[in-house]
Amino acid sequence: MTDDAPEPPSGLRAMLPDLAPWRASRDFRRLWYAGLISNFGSFLTFVALPVQLKELTGSAAAVGAIGAVELIPLLVFGLYGGALADAWDKRKLIVWTEAGQGLLSVALLLNALLPHPAVWPLYVVAALSSALVSVQRPALDSLWPRIVAHDHLPAAASLNSFRWTVGGVAGPALAGVVVAYAGLGWAYGADLLTFAVSVVLVVRIAASPASHEAAKPSLKAIAEGARYAWGRKELLGTYAVDLAAMFLAMPLALLPFLADELDADWSLGLMYASVPLGALLVSLVSGWTTRIHRHGRMVVLSAALWGLAIAAAGIMSNVWLVLLFLTVAGGCDMVSGIFRGIMWNQTIPDELRGRLAGIELLSYSVGPTLGQVRSGGFAAWWGVRTSVWSGGVLCAGAVGLLALCLPKLMTYDARTDQHAAQVRDQRAAAQV
Q1: Which of 42, 202, 278, 422 might form a disulfide with 331, Cβ 3.0–4.6 angstroms?
Q2: Type and span of the H or E element at 326
Q3: HEC states along 86-125?
């Protein structure tokens, strides 16, 4: 180290999030704010929708069926949305899908204001929202590496995680109060407002056209992305681990019923907020993540601990212990998410990033979607708490088995990985 080189942070400073991407990129700041505001509103609806279904049907299976109607749009539009993200302007895709989400909030608001709200619009909106998210997320995920320097990507992943968790904590906590005391209409109305503000912010971001090497959207282009992913066993491992964790141990659809069983209806908002609260606590001290290089091992360890924490939450009969273990689970999920994001962003070439982001979307969205169906079905047969704790145990076992079957995930090292080096060189050449 030369005499004028900056000293690495130490002590408490080393634990705090690295703000380098925030300082260096105006577009990063705008997109970060847009995501914060939009996520805040989305979490309001995330709580309000299953609560409204519970009030209208009284059925855990009916609430879990939200995942079933979201599944097909995720499968279809997730992969095609990735191809679109590689071939079209990413900013335009984000703006138009965000506007579409706002229109869906209008539909939910109008239905909630009816004297006798209907059930079917809730499922229709859930399916359409799933389609829009499936188109938007690959564009959004593949845009971050374009507006952030390569060496800043680990810090950007932590800051994005922090952004998501702020909305995840405040949104559900506020939603529980709003739904209980003001009504569902207020939650849906607030969500509509956040989408409008988000669109205004994203419009001001610089255009992000397709790279010259990107293929036009087609089945052939989608297949090309899938072949690349299949050839990268360490990437395949991140998808599989996340899919298993979310499918087997995602109990959010059951939280209204779990609160009832614990005779603690007042705790519903806190339950929804506990998982993102744990994620928030981790993101506040995420500085350490930039000094970890064996990302695959961290993905596996944290996903297994997520499952064990969910199992503990299902076993506990004291509501405060349930909240504690849900918080621990959220922290573990955040660690897994940060290191998955770093691996994806630092090793995938720009011309394939949209299509790979579409596959990533399936791994972290199809899992929770199917998980709602699984947890609702298990709860209908064996009870709510059994559904929760058994899913956590199965998750830990499945993650351990995947680690044995995919050794490249466990041996991945960002300092020596050839794909990370190729992307680093690609970014450096583009800046010359």
Answers
A1: 278
A2: helix 319-347
A3: HHCCHHHHHHHHHHHHHHHHHHHHHHHCCCCCCCHHHHHH
Q: Is residue 423 within 8 Å of 150, Cβ to Cβ?
A: yes
Q: What whole-number distance in Å separates Cα of residue 397 and Cα of residue 138? A: 30
Q: State pTM to two decimals.
A: 0.69
CB 99 within 8 A of CB 106: no
Structure tokens at 81: 């949305």
| Residue located via tokens 């199809």 | 366
The total of other beta-carbon atoms located within 10 Å of residue 263's CB is 9
CA dist., res. 378 & res. 373, Å (int): 9
CA–CA dist 338, 71 (Å, integer): 25
- Tell me, rounded to whole angstroms, the distance of Cα 109 from its chain centroid: 25
Spacing of C-alpha 117 from chain mean position: 30
Token digits of residue 297: 């091992």
Q: What b/e sequence results for 38-59 when a residue is b if at least 16 CB atoms lie within 10 Å of its CB, and e otherwise?
A: bbbbbbbbbbbbbbbbbeeeee
Crossing angle for the helix pair 60-87 and 353-382, to the nearest 10 degrees: 170
pLDDT in tens, 307-342: 999 999 989 989 899 999 999 999 999 899 889 888
**Most distant pair of Cα atoms in the chain: their distance:** 73
pLDDT digit string, tens, across residues 18-73? 788 888 889 999 999 998 888 888 888 888 888 888 888 888 778 878 877 887 88
